[in-house]
Amino acid sequence: MNYNRKQRDIWANSANIFWGYSSEKWNDWTNYLSLQDKMDELALENAKLKEKLINYELSPIVEKDTLQTLNQQYELLSAKVASNTTDRPNNYLTINKGIKDGVRKDMGVISENGIVGIIREVRNDYAAVNSLLHRRTFISAMIKRTGAFGELKWVGTNPQIVNLGSIEKHNIVAVGDTIVTSGYSTHFPPGLMIGTIASTELPSGNNFHNIKVRLSNDFGTLRYVEIVKNRKQTQQLELEKEIKEK
Amino acid sequence: MNNVITQNILRLFFFVLVQGVVLQQAKLGGTFFNYISLFIYPLFLLLLPLKISKIALVLTGFGLGMLVDGAYNSPGVHTAACLVVAILRPLVLAILEPREGYNVSLGLTIKSYGVLWFLKYAGVLLFIHLLVYFVLEIFTPVYAIEIIGRTIASFLFSLFLMIMYMVIARPSV
Hints:
The complex is a heterodimer. By secondary structure, chain A is α+β, with helices and mostly antiparallel strands. Helices cover 31% and strands 30% of the residues of chain A. Chain A has 2 domains: 5-134 and 219-231, Rod shape-determining protein MreC, domain 1 (Thrombin, subunit H, Beta Barrel), CATH 2.40.10.340; 139-215, Rod shape-determining protein MreC, domain 2 (Thrombin, subunit H), CATH 2.40.10.350. Chain A contains 4 helices and 12 strands; from the N terminus they run αααββββββββββββα. In chain A, the strands form 2 sheets. Chain A has a 6-stranded antiparallel barrel. In chain A, strands 6-7-8-11-10-9 form a 6-stranded antiparallel barrel. The longest helix of chain A has 29 residues, at 5-33. The relative contact order of chain A is 0.15. The model of chain A has no long low-confidence stretch (mean pLDDT 83). By secondary structure, chain B is an all-alpha fold. The model of chain B has no long low-confidence stretch (mean pLDDT 91). The termini of chain B are close together. Chain B contains 7 helices and no strands. Classes of the chains: A alpha+beta, B mainly alpha.
């Protein structure tokens, strides 16, 4: 819809204040019903994280200095989902952190099962996330086994399948291959789980595989997400912009 | 007179809030089969008094549509669908006029004119509303199957929801 951007922002802002609040209150009640499941998930995640931490601390290969710099590039901020849809042509989530919590446009959003989307607009208390189920969201993704990277796009019908494009035909791809973030965009750190290949075909005459990826994240049941703050995001984006303009 | 207006204002709050907060996130059929959307707010337009003027009806339809658009963050889509219903409602009422004619003091409910009449009345207008809504939301002939599929699926479940409301709340006006 092409109309005056300022009017759209005014509309979105005023409508979202009331409805964001109402949706959050309703979700507070329904969240109560799934507390047991949430506790089980958190216990499992806790165990996995402790395991990773122990391994890092015991590992002789990773030097303490590099470990600290790596840790400082990405910061995670936890947020609650105030509203979510999966059945529209373009879906977005509303989360309950905003400008006052340090959230800015273009930050990545993940949950424990995989990636969720990219922050599109921010207000003082709430932010709107373009979910992966949004036709304008493109994520840079990589086949974990081979390192070949391409672009993830949602075509708009099935909320469990996205298309992986730009994988050239000389790459070997197999059903079941894990797809992770490549780290080449500034939104997400590398290596985050996205999904597994559900089907792939290479029609003769095509330069690229037609790969369909089944998402590891169930967008219908998202309740808590994490916002990824990349400290080096503006630096990298400015550098890329300068190079393109030269 | 006073009773009708307050009854309708309360109904407006109830339908818009339930639609925006509860039904927007209802996922019948799970994450995979997302064709079913539930709409209960067109019932507000259907239950407006019989002798309301056409201009007031259209303006109310516009207001109702804008409020629900605020919740769904889809400026204009619900408004357009509600306006079509508001414009067509007098026509549908005229076509479906029962043999004895309408009684101005009764509300347009199951209690007044019977289940069959109400099914025809609500069914026609709800189907038109949903068709306009999905055509405008998807807005491309590429997804024609989606448009038809979603209209029919949402129609069946939304009509069921409306009948449930009529049976449970039993409004008389």
